[in-house]
Amino acid sequence: MKVLLLYPEFPDTFWSFRHALPFLGRRSAYPPLGLLTVSAMLPTQWQRKLVDLNVEKLRDRDLAWADVAFLSAMLVQGPSLSRLIARCREAGLRTVVGGPITSADLHVCEGADHVVRGEAEGIIGDLVSDLEAGKARRRYEAAGRPDMATVPPPDLRLARLRRYSAMPLQYSRGCPFSCEFCDIVELFGRTPRVKTAEQVLAELEQLYRMGWRGSVFVVDDNFVGNKAAIKLLLPRLEEWMRVHGNPFCLYTQASINLAEDDELLSLMRAARFSKVFVGIETPVKESHRAAGKLQNVKADLLECVRRIQEHGMEVMGGFILGFDQDPPEIFEKQIAFIKEAAIPVSMVGILTALPNTRLWRRLSGEGRILRQSVGDNTAALLNFIPRMDPDALLAGYRKVLASIYSPTEYFERAQAMLGRLGAVPKPRLVFSDYLALCRSFIRQGIFARYRVAYWHFLGKTFLRKPGHMGLAVTLAIMGHHFFTLTRRLKSGVPHRDVA
Ligand code: SF4
After folding, report:
1. How many Å lie between the centroid of ligand 1 and the Cα of residue 258?
2. By alpha-carbon position, which residue is closest to atom 6 of ligand 1?
3. How far is the CA of 175 from the centre of ligand 1 (A)?
4. Quick check: helix, strand or coil at residue 31?
5. How far is the CA of 256 from the centre of ligand 1 (A)?
6. Which one of 228, 347, 459, 462 counts the least CB within 10 Å of its CB?
7. pLDDT < 50 stretches in the chain
8. pTM above 0.90, yes or no
9. Closest ligand 1 atom, residue 183 Cα
10. Tell me, what CATH number does 294's domain have?
11. Amino acid 498: pLDDT
């Protein structure tokens, strides 16, 4: 059997980093971990080929070569997925669709021959034998949640690593919290399941042997969901990194209660975690309470952010506008909080009712759902009727973005963050880092409209924190992505579906 693994294109969103990647000479943030993990579970005699539309084109001869196409997508990749399914049909190629989108939007999968819902580990055996026997069913539904010990390392041989800016690694699935708007607990459950330390180290070893150096994104939705397990893993990770000459720089996502635990913060920093994305959502406690984000209710959010930064890790923040409890002055409050917290990379989006969430069920019951979510909370497209006047909400959202992603505001926050950042290990620079530096100097320092603010930022960093110059250039490059996208959003250029 010849299987073509197809990964649909991401639209141009804050998360795509599309305007930062060219500086690094990369085409996409990271390869499709789900498809590569599925590939590792297929029979060894099956031939496979990966086409990730984010880094390469799909050719007719790829379609002609294959017996079956496996596609995996998130909700935000829906439009590109639809087109891919149609193209496979035209070519007479059988399609199997899986990934989070099948739990959220079956409509987009209608043209597919087979749809797989749930985590692949529990179903793949049946699917493979049914395909081989020519009697595969229309639907496959995973029963239960697989033990993470059964998850193999991803089949990275299929991916052209140099086209990506980071490599993905998954340690756990699930989150102990239950935020109303989040679909993670619906997909993966509230009991975090973790890989063994040996599995994690084997994946790092694989990356190391394949010559990868640089960023590794630990993709867990909440890396600290099981603190006891993490505290056992991190010393092993630190030792492995030290023995191998610290080849990787790690980043991940975590809940704010990470900041309560000095031991955990120190262990993460020692293991070379350099930044962490935290769902802060809003400075309004009443909104946290109503959304069931109780870990944020009791936390002093500004203090928590500062503690993480002081432990040498950059905080990237997720923020939401459009909660029922938002006061009229929410926009000014968000801007002020982001500034005071010194969070340069702030992902601000409008509340979205994702399918199969508690929020979706509540709003459905209240008759407030307008449409299916497109999975992109920066799309400035409401999928529910907010309490606030919708025009005021959209105008306020644009105002927040225009403010926090004005180059002056952004560089000021970046400077303040660098001032707080605790000791960071000397970065291990690779060739692409030097190229990125040259490109940044030329493109941002000579041709960009914001070049004065850019040089001001770099100059100050050089004088005050010369050890942070590498990080400062990285932040400037990230800033370029946000400035570009915010400008497009302001000018009304659609950015949801460019595939
Ligand atoms: S803490 Fe994060 S991952 Fe966990 S339920 Fe809340 S939003 Fe989802």
Report:
1. 13
2. 179
3. 6
4. coil
5. 10
6. 228
7. 493-499
8. yes
9. 8
10. 3.20.20.70
11. 25
